[in-house]
Design a protein that fits this description.
262 residues; Rossmann fold; 2 domains; alpha/beta; five-stranded parallel beta sheet; 5 strands; Butyryl-CoA Dehydrogenase, subunit A, domain 3
């Protein structure tokens, strides 16, 4: 069981960071979950899959603390994020992330957050309504596949966001970012000229350090290494519209505490 839990840990860390909007805070919650399991092995339900058991244990810790971000965030970005989160219906963001990011079934979500399956479905609907009203902003797309890039552009523009442009290479991405500052960067990892989307993002973040980033990759665990840049938001390939909408809504929600216009 320990080995199986370790295999699922990168995905818990991804979820915790997306949930809190902070790599540091999310990792603290993930670590607290492991500590709680070590103290009480009964937290890890052996009658269900290891991933489901780990996420269920996480929510036992999460619901006990009742804090969506770091408790010591008295000012700054995390404090503003906490204020925004306080206005959301309880369990809505959790449901949205569990469904769209981690691809749990409604039955699984019901077990994790301890609600009925019908309540899980309703919470997801509420989440989309509330998050879509939060903010609109400017999105830079870094993607070398034309059809995928256009698909992403269509999804985010339908959500009410503006696209600053589509870059196919590292050089194009940096030049585009220099021309027009993005509120969010949505980047593939492998680009047209064999350059790195990660390297492009690193360079852009030197100029705009608080800009949220969503990476698109077929191997999300390769970015969940504990080394920077380690994004709070990852979209696995192949993706569907719900995953893109979820990640963009989450990222823009937290970006609204920094640079966006509500």
């Amino acid at each position: 069981m320990s080995l199986q839990v370790a295999k699922e840990l990168p995905f818990l860390r991804r979820y915790a960071r997306a949930l809190t909007g902070s790599q540091q805070t999310g990792d603290r919650y993930a670590a607290a979950t492991l500590e709680a399991i070590l103290e009480d092995r009964a937290l890890l339900d052996t009658g269900i899959s290891p991933k489901l058991a780990l996420f269920k244990a996480f929510h036992s810790v999460w619901q006990t603390t009742g804090a969506p971000v770091a408790a010591d965030a008295v000012d700054g970005i995390e404090a503003r994020a906490q204020k925004l989160l306080a206005g959301l219906t309880p369990n809505t963001r959790e449901t949205l992330l569990l469904r769209a990011l981690e691809e749990f079934s409604y039955d699984d979500i019901a077990q994790i957050i301890m609600v009925s399956e019908d309540e899980a479905r309703e919470l997801l609907a509420i989440a989309y309504r509330e998050m879509s009203k939060s903010v609109q902003g400017r999105i830079q797309i870094i993607e070398d596949e034309p059809l995928i890039a256009l698909d992403i552009k269509s999804i985010v523009t339908e959500m009410g966001h503006d696209v600053t442009g589509i870059a196919r290479t590292h050089t194009e991405a940096v030049a585009l970012g220099a021309r027009e500052r993005p509120d969010l960067i949505l980047a593939d990892i492998h680009l047209a000229d064999n350059s790195s989307g990660v390297d492009a993002v690193v360079e852009l973040l030197r100029e705009y350090p608080d800009t949220p980033v969503i990476f698109i990759t077929a191997y999300p665990e390769r970015l969940l290494t504990g080394e920077k840049p380690e994004p709070a938001f990852l979209i696995p390939k192949p993706f569907d519209e719900e995953q893109v909408r979820s990640a963009v809504s989450q990222a823009m929600f937290f970006a609204s505490t920094q640079t966006l216009n509500a």
